[in-house]
Design goal:
Strand content of chain B: 5-15%
Largest sheet of chain A: 7 strands, mixed
Number of domains of chain A: 2
Distance between the termini of chain A: 60 Å
CATH superfamily of the largest domain in chain A: Type I PLP-dependent aspartate aminotransferase-like (Major domain)
Order of helices and strands of chain B: HHHHHEHEHEHEHEEEEEHHEEHEEHHHH
Strand content of chain A: 5-15%
Low-confidence stretches of chain A: none
CATH class of the largest domain in chain A: Alpha Beta
Largest interface: A-B, 215 and 207 residues
Helix content of chain A: 25-40%
Distance between the termini of chain B: 44 Å
Number of strands of chain B: 13
Radius of gyration of chain B: 26 Å
CATH topology of the largest domain in chain A: Aspartate Aminotransferase, domain 2
Number of helices of chain B: 16
Oligomer: heterodimer
CATH class of one domain in chain B: Alpha Beta
Structural class of chain B: alpha/beta
Order of helices and strands of chain A: HHHHHEHEHEEHEEEEEHHEEHEHEH
CATH architecture of one domain in chain B: 3-Layer(aba) Sandwich
Helix content of chain B: 25-40%
Number of helices of chain A: 13
Strand order of the largest sheet of chain A: 1-7-6-5-4-2-3
Number of strands of chain A: 13
Radius of gyration of chain A: 25 Å
Shape of chain A: globular
Strand order of the largest sheet of chain B: 1-7-6-5-4-2-3
């Protein structure tokens, strides 16, 4: 077998060195009744060609986003990733290393983490960022726990503009720790007012910007009211590219910023692996979850990097740790860092401007269709449209016609009375022809 | 050979080392390049991308345009490529050498898996596309689930957890939900003192108190002590098997019976499943629920610290409490159950406790793991376990006369040494590990598990040939002899030959610098 180096002769020689007759003599601690006499009921080994054939057939049963006009977002966005990114992350030294427990031979990974933390802090307008979480939703749940620890309170107010799956993950985690959740109703029109829900028992307010429905909000007043009540403002950003065009959460008074970093460097991958971003103020760093990389010097006085402040973490603090997270999203953060390095200041700004422009074009086209209205006064690259009938059926019909139109809000928020709403996202990968095809197809379907 | 002799003479010569004999003008040393931070390299006007001009002017940003510089450096593609290639060259990796990091299962990562994960039909598919357009993706998840259920002998699975610790969280939440459904969540989770730190941290995240169970002198859980702690306040036990000492819990069936007798559940941390995959089914041992680390046993790349994937297999009794989402197969194809409303409509008796993460799990890892499992097959996976155990026992057999195994063999897929063999040498486990770096090896896991003094947990994995292990073993034998010969300085200063010498971790923690800042503010913070 191609992945197993031993010959029968090797195995015999090794057993002899060990001083046993057969490999089963090494499994003596396993209860006899539990050792399987023969392989389990699964196919036997297969060569590369056979495996590739079978799995390629499975892949071919999916409609790849790049093959059709494509407008699906909702917390995962299709962007162009420069070819150099995927090449570099497949360098053996990055791909097949693990957590940098031995910093002297892990400076590559560690310096990348330091660059990543700096980039995330800059984008979010915060002072410090960690070395990544699993995804935006789990980062959001960790932010709520961190706010509870910092304020010694247990009530989180969730905006109706928060991604429903983020809300679900926050609620799931909170339920097991007696956290109290006050969740505002889904806010399709972007008009909610959370101020009345904040009082001196509020640990944090969690908002998303742009919201799940695409609306942009100036959060400064909200931050003021939070702080006046001793509460923290947590801001979730599900589209990192928006930070190239929109005022950063940090500049608007956020205390913790969480985000989904998939948009930079990472493919859609049917939902994972993705990349949780987590940034906060320096004074809160000791309550932060997750790994942190810090700068130091080596025995010869040269600059180097290490994992640090690990007394917050499970491998040191065990049941008193700030989180149980261990393995995070290392390779995804590397992809993020390389992509952002290629973009640079101007490239990132221009990428964001392009996304906004394409979304403006798509919104303008869809708004021309009789019976279709755009709900947003403001948006970045995603917006909500109201259709004259249930969106789920329309989206399915458009898929049959070769257009992946958007997300029926009812898929994530069933029974919310929002069945006629559809989220539509556009990015730099969206072409004029895509917009025209979508517009024409939707107009026909609705006719 | 010359590197070896250099390291030796460096040790004898004190702290400077022979690497200082030749001073270079550039700061580089042959292939070892000194590389600044990307933030110190930019020059306004450069770019690594060419984007089309933006023609539309109708801004809809609601007056929230970002103003001022973000502070990102500007570089061309060749500069960025060289920067990250140079950084990569400062890393040790499986592809460059034996990486015996115990309990992390640093096995070979087949490149076929990377190729298949990048097929547009898997990588360029959105999680919220209409389900009719992702039938192949759902079939893939269902197929991975089938393999994992078959290999573990447990009939249900939650696929969404993102890593091992996240799988533990899923498992504990499932257990708590099952207890709650019976009207009493219970209060305590039993965790052996040899457990990985994620276990107690996870139990606390589910609102449980952690009650530690001592280990016996033979490295196994103390069954009598366990039984003494069991009562109807105990919600469950979290046991790693094979355990973190590299030993199979030989009384595991008795553990399961005792735990079940008080109505508690048996959670198994599956970090070490590589030792028994295809050979022993955890379901046959009385285990109720268990996570699998796809990035360990099933070879998805470790990536410098993730991404992982931690699906959780479980009994039929626990299955109704598993989290959303999950895939069901029906006459019209595969379907995702994503929301409580979906679950109600499906009428499958499920009452999920909630959701672990957004979307449907680590699809990219599922693809790689399936390619790995199909490549090995039922026969090859069994061979994986046998070879992994064979290799660890070979290391044990060839080192037991010069190093000190914490427990007598046989071991499973990893062998645990303590620091008794270093007694009175002036060399610590850390020093020994750092000397291994000079010899071209990644050290084993050190100082874990906590119950063994100066622990060195060594896991060669099945990927290593006899030849490569012989070189490794001969090197460790020589190092052990060096230590005993009183050559402590050679260890205390190590590593001499890595891209960096030993790093000052105290300084990093005392005065944290967690990001780059332009000049002055960094000084002010000092």
């Amino acid at each position: 077998m191609r992945y197993l180096p031993h010959t029968a002769q090797d195995r015999r020689a090794m057993l002899q060195t060990i001083g046993v007759n057969s490999v089963d003599d090494l499994f003596v601690d396993v209860p006899r009744s539990a050792v399987l006499a023969k392989p389990v009921d699964l196919p036997d080994h297969a060569g590369e060609l056979a495996v590739e054939r079978t799995l390629s057939k499975m892949a071919a049963r999916n409609v790849a986003a790049g093959t059709v006009p494509f407008f699906v977002g909702g917390g995962a966005y299709r962007h162009h990733v420069p070819a150099a990114v995927d090449h570099l992350i497949q360098r053996s030294e990055f791909l097949t290393a693990y957590t940098p427990y031995q910093p002297e031979i892990s400076q590559g990974t560690l310096q990348v983490l330091f660059e990543f933390q700096t980039q995330v802090a800059l984008l979010t307008g915060m002072e410090v960022a960690n070395a990544s979480m699993y995804d935006g939703a789990t980062a959001c749940a960790e932010a709520v726990l961190m706010a509870n620890r910092l304020t010694r309170r247990r009530r989180a107010v969730l905006s109706g503009g928060l991604h429903p799956q983020y809300r679900a993950v926050v609620e799931t985690q909170s339920r097991f720790l007696d956290g109290e959740i006050v969740a505002a109703a889904p806010d399709a029109t972007g008009e909610e007012d959370l101020l009345a829900l904040i009082d001196d028992e509020t640990a944090c307010v969690v908002v998303q910007n742009p919201t799940f429905f695409g609306h942009l909000h100036d959060l400064r007043k909200l931050a003021e009211v939070c702080h006046a009540n001793g509460a923290l403002l947590v801001v979730a950003v599900t589209e990192t590219v928006s930070l190239g065009a929109v005022t950063s959460p940090g500049a608007m008074g956020a205390d913790i910023v969480v985000g989904e970093g998939q948009s930079l460097g990472n493919a859609l991958n049917f939902g994972g692996p993705y990349l949780g971003l987590f940034a906060t103020r320096e004074k809160f760093v000791r309550q932060m979850p997750g790994r942190l990389c810090g700068e130091t010097v080596d025995a010869d006085g040269r600059r180097g990097f290490v994992l640090t402040l690990s007394t917050r973490e499970q491998h040191i603090r065990r049941e008193k740790a700030t989180s149980n997270i261990c393995t995070n999203s290392g390779l995804c953060s590397l992809a993020f860092t390389i992509h952002l390095s290629l973009l640079g200041e101007d490239g990132f700004r221009q990428l964001a401007a392009l996304n906004h422009a394409r979304a403006c074009e798509a919104a303008a086209r869809l708004a021309q269709i009789p019976g279709v209205s755009v709900l947003n006064n403001s948006f970045f690259n995603e917006f909500t449209v109201r259709l004259p009938r249930a969106a789920a059926g329309v989206v399915d019909t458009l898929a049959e016609r070769g257009v992946l139109a958007g997300i029926p809000v009812s898929r994530l928020l069933p029974a919310a009375g929002l069945d006629d709403l559809m989220l539509v996202a556009a990015t730099e990968t969206t072409t004029e022809e895509d917009v025209a095809a979508f517009g024409d197809a939707l107009a026909e379907v609705l006719r | 050979m010359s590197a070896r002799s250099q390291a030796h003479s460096a040790g004898r010569g004190g702290d400077g080392g022979t690497r200082d004999v030749v001073q270079t003008h550039s700061g580089h040393r042959g292939l070892q390049m000194e590389e600044p931070l990307i933030f110190e390299m930019g020059s306004p006007g450069r770019t690594g991308v060419d984007l089309p001009p933006v023609t539309t002017t109708t801004g809809k940003l609601g007056g929230l345009q970002r103003r001022g510089e973000i502070g990102l450096p500007a570089l061309s593609e060749p500069q960025v490529v060289r920067h990250y290639v140079r950084l990569s060259q400062k890393n040790y990796a499986i592809d460059s050498g034996l990486y015996p990091l115990g309990s992390c299962t640093m096995k070979h990562n087949p490149r076929l898996n990377e190729k298949i994960a990048r097929l547009p039909g898997f990588s360029d598919v959105h999680p919220l596309q209409p389900q009719s357009t992702v039938q192949g993706a759902l079939e893939l998840i269902d197929t991975v689930a089938h393999w994992l259920k078959t290999l573990t002998g447990l009939p249900a699975i939650a696929m969404s957890p993102a890593a091992g610790a996240h799988g533990e969280l899923c498992g504990m939440m499932t257990i708590r939900s099952a207890h709650e459904a019976r009207g009493n969540a219970r209060k305590r989770i039993l965790v052996p003192d040899s457990a990985h730190g994620t276990n107690p941290a996870t139990a606390v995240l589910c609102g449980y108190a952690v009650d530690p169970v001592p280990s016996l002198p033979n490295g196994r859980i103390d069954l009598a002590a366990l039984k003494a702690k069991l009562d109807d306040d105990v919600a469950g036990i979290m046991l790693t098997n094979p355990n973190t000492c590299g030993l199979f819990e030989n009384e595991i069936i008795e553990v399961a019976e005792a735990v079940h007798a008080v109505g508690a559940y048996f959670y198994c941390d599956g970090a070490n499943f590589n030792a028994i995959v295809g050979k022993v089914r955890p379901g046959d041992l009385g285990i109720d629920i268990m996570h699998l680390n796809l990035h360990k046993t099933f070879s998805t790349p470790h990536g410098g610290g993730g991404p992982g994937s931690g699906p959780v297999v479980m009994t039929a009794e626990l299955a109704p409490y598993a989290p959303l989402p999950y895939v069901v197969a029906g006459p019209d194809g595969f379907r995702l159950i994503e929301t409580p409303a979906d679950q109600e409509a499906a009428g499958d008796g499920g009452h999920a406790y909630g959701r672990m993460k957004s979307f449907h799990g680590q699809m990219g890892m599922f693809v790689r793991a399936l390619a790995y499992m199909m490549s090995h097959g039922a026969d090859g996976l069994r061979q994986v376990a046998e070879d992994a155990v064979l290799n660890a026992n070979y290391v044990l057999a060839r080192l037991e006369d010069v190093m000190t195994p914490a427990y007598p063999g046989p071991c499973m897929h990893e062998v645990l040494f303590d620091d008794t063999f270093l007694k009175d040498t002036g060399v610590t486990t850390l020093d020994f590990a750092k000397a291994m770096i000079d010899e071209g090896f990644h050290p084993m896991t050190v100082y874990f598990p906590l119950i063994v003094h100066g622990a060195m947990l060594t896991e060669p994995t099945e990927s290593e040939s006899k030849e490569s292990m012989d070189v490794f073993i001969d090197t460790l034998r020589a190092l052990a002899a060096d230590a005993k010969a009183g050559n402590a300085a050679r260890f205390a200063g190590a590593p001499y030959l890595a891209p960096r010498r030993r790093l000052d971790e105290t300084r990093a923690a005392r005065n944290p610098r967690l990001r780059w800042t332009p000049e002055a503010p960094a000084e002010a913070a000092e």
